[in-house]
Amino acid sequence: MTTPPAPVREHAPWTIWLTAIAFEAATVLFGAFNTAYTNGSSLIGLFSLVFGALALIVVLMGPSIHWCSK
C-alpha cells in the first residue's frame, strides 16, 4: 500500500516572500552604493543594480501573477 502524496501548498508563506523582497532590496542598495562609490566603473555594482532591480520587480509581481492566473 502506498502513502498518499503530500498536499501542495497554494503559495509560499508571506515570510519567504518578505525575505526575498528584503534580499533583493539589499542587492539593489549594494549595487547603487558600489556604483556610486566607484563612479560607475564597477561591473559588480552595475550588475547588482540591474539584476537586483529586475529580480525585485519579479518578486513583487509574483503574487499578482499568481492571483491573476486563477
What does this structure look like?
The chain is mainly α and about 70 residues long. It has one domain (about 15-70). It contains 2 helices and no strands. The chain has helices at about 15-35, 45-70. Helix 1 runs antiparallel to helix 2 (about 45-70). The chain is elongated. The chain starts with 13 loop residues before the first helix and ends with a helix. Keywords: Membrane, Transmembrane, Transmembrane helix.
Task: Reconstruct the topology from this structure.
Layout: H1 14-37, H2 43-68
Helix pairs in contact: 1-2
Question: Notable features of this structure?
Answer:
70 residues, 71% helix, single chain, elongated
Offer a quick outline of the entry:
The chain is mainly alpha-helical.
Overall pLDDT confidence: 78
Overall number of structural domains? 1
Distance between the termini: 34 Å
Q: Characterize the biggest β-sheet.
A: none
Q: How helix-rich are the residues, as a percent range?
A: over 70%
